[in-house]
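Project outcomes to date are best conveyed with an example. Our students and postdoctoral researchers have been running inverse folding experiments weekly, and each run begins with a structure described purely in C-alpha cells. The record below, which covers 320 residues, was selected by the lab manager from last quarter's runs and is presented without edits.
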C-alpha cells in the first residue's frame, strides 16, 4: 500500500497553482490546455524523482511560497532560482532533496526567470478534471477549486520510494545550458504571414520587444516597433494555437500562451517553435526578447533534438 503524505501551504506567494502538462482536446468547448508554463522544468523536476514526466506539481510565479511537509518526502525544485531554504538552510535547485516531517521550505522572489516548480515524489494528488489536474485560472477549472493556492491548503501525494532512496540525482549543467539558452525565440511563419510585407516580417525578426506588465498565462503582450496589420482590418475569427504571434490593430504583437483563448480574429504573423515554448514561461515583465524565423523543418529538428536531450540517461547525473 502506498504511503499517503501531505504538505501544507503556509504562504502561497504571488501566484502558485497546481499544474501538469495540461488538458488537450477541449478547444471545441472553449477550453485551452493550461498546464505548466515551463513544461521542460516540470519534466526535469519529475525526472529527478522518478515520477511520470507530467506528474502534477506546484508552479510558483515571480515570488515563491512557504510550505510545511507533514511527512518524510523526496522533493525537487526546477526552473528559476527562488532562493529556496529548508529550515533556513539554503538548498539547491535541479537536485533531489530529502525532507523530514515538520520541515519548512521557503521560496522568495525570483533571482532568475519567472517560474519555479516544486515537484514531490508521487506528484501532487488532486482530482483530475477533463483528464488533467492543471489549474486553468481564467476558467476556474482544475487544481484546488480552479484557483491559485491559499494559506491553509493541504496537498496530498502518494510517494513511491522509501526514504532515502538510492543516490542523489542532479540535472547536468551540460543539459541546462542548451535547454535554457539565451538568444532569440525561434518562430515559424504564421497562418497570415504572407499578408504582411517582407519589410514587416524582417522588422519582427530584427527588433527587440519588451514584455509588458499586463502579460500573464493567457498571453505575453509586447512593446516595440509597430508591425501594423497591413491590409487587414478585420478577419473571420478562427482557431488559434499556443505560441501564435497575433498582431492587433495597434501593431504591438501578442504571443498567445498556455491559457490562451481558443479563437481569435487578429492576423498571426508567426508562431513560436514548440522547442522554445518553455522559455516563454520564464519571461518576466520588462524582459527584452527577440525573434528569429526558422522553417517548419528546422523547428521540427529543434524539437527532436530537445527530446533526445531530455531523456533521463542524457540529462541526469547520479551522485553517491
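After processing, the design step wrote out the following sequence:
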Amino acid at each position: 500500500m502506498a504511503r499517503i503524505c501531505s504538505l501544507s501551504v503556509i504562504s502561497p506567494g504571488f501566484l502558485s497553482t497546481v499544474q501538469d502538462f495540461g488538458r488537450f482536446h477541449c478547444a471545441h468547448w472553449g477550453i485551452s490546455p493550461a498546464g505548466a508554463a515551463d513544461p521542460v522544468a516540470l519534466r526535469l523536476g519529475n525526472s529527478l524523482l522518478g515520477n511520470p514526466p507530467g506528474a502534477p506539481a506546484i508552479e510558483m510565479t515571480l515570488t515563491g511560497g512557504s510550505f510545511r511537509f507533514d511527512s518524510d518526502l523526496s522533493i525537487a525544485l526546477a526552473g528559476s532560482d527562488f532562493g529556496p531554504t529548508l529550515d533556513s538552510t539554503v538548498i539547491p535547485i535541479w537536485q533531489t532533496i530529502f525532507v523530514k516531517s515538520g520541515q519548512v521550505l521557503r521560496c522568495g522572489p525570483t533571482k532568475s526567470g519567472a517560474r519555479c516548480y516544486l515537484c514531490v515524489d508521487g506528484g501532487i494528488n488532486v482530482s483530475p478534471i477533463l483528464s488533467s489536474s492543471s489549474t486553468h485560472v481564467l476558467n476556474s477549472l482544475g487544481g484546488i477549486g480552479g484557483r491559485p493556492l491559499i494559506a491553509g491548503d493541504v496537498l496530498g501525494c502518494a510517494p513511491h520510494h522509501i526514504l532515502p532512496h538510492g543516490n542523489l540525482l542532479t540535472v547536468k549543467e551540460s543539459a541546462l545550458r542548451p535547454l535554457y539558452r539565451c538568444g532569440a525565440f525561434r518562430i515559424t511563419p504564421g497562418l497570415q504571414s504572407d499578408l504582411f510585407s517582407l519589410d514587416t516580417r524582417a522588422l519582427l525578426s530584427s527588433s527587440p520587444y519588451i514584455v509588458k506588465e499586463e502579460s500573464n498565462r493567457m498571453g505575453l503582450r509586447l512593446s516595440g516597433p509597430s508591425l501594423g496589420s497591413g491590409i487587414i482590418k478585420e478577419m473571420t475569427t478562427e482557431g488559434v494555437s499556443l505560441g501564435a504571434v497575433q498582431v492587433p490593430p495597434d501593431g504591438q504583437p501578442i504571443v498567445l500562451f498556455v491559457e490562451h483563448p481558443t479563437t481569435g480574429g487578429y492576423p498571426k504573423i508567426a508562431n513560436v517553435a514548440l522547442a522554445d515554448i518553455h522559455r516563454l514561461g520564464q519571461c518576466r515583465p520588462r524582459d527584452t526578447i527577440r525573434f528569429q524565423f526558422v522553417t517548419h523543418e528546422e523547428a521540427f529538428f529543434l524539437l527532436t533534438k530537445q527530446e533526445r536531450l531530455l531523456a533521463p540517461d542524457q540529462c541526469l547525473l547520479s551522485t553517491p
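The chain is about 15% helix and 30% strand. The chain has two domains: 5-171, 185-309. The training component of this project remains on track.
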